[in-house]
Write a structure and sequence with these properties.
There is one protein chain. By secondary structure, the protein is mainly alpha-helical. Helices cover about 90% and strands about 0% of the residues.
């Protein structure tokens, strides 16, 4: 089960609480939904940052390797 499925299920619970006028539980479920979404966004941001670092490192290594084979680094 992914975050979207969890949020959808929690939204159903939230709507049920709203129909039953259970404001406390509705509020708690709403906060939980917000927390899940925020945590998911932070995890996505961290993942993208790690991917960017990996790509940058890989590109840098390839540039250095190609420069060594072409003799560019030896000339410098």
């Amino acid at each position: 089960m992914d975050i979207r499925e969890l949020v959808e299920r929690l939204e159903k619970i939230e709507k049920h609480c709203q129909k039953n006028k259970d404001k406390d539980t509705e509020s708690m479920v709403g906060v939980l939904i917000d927390d899940l979404i925020e945590q998911d966004m932070e995890a996505e941001k961290e993942f993208r940052n790690e991917v960017r670092k990996f790509i940058d490192k890989t590109i840098e290594e390839q540039v250095v390797e190609r420069a060594m084979y072409s003799g560019s680094i030896a000339q410098a």
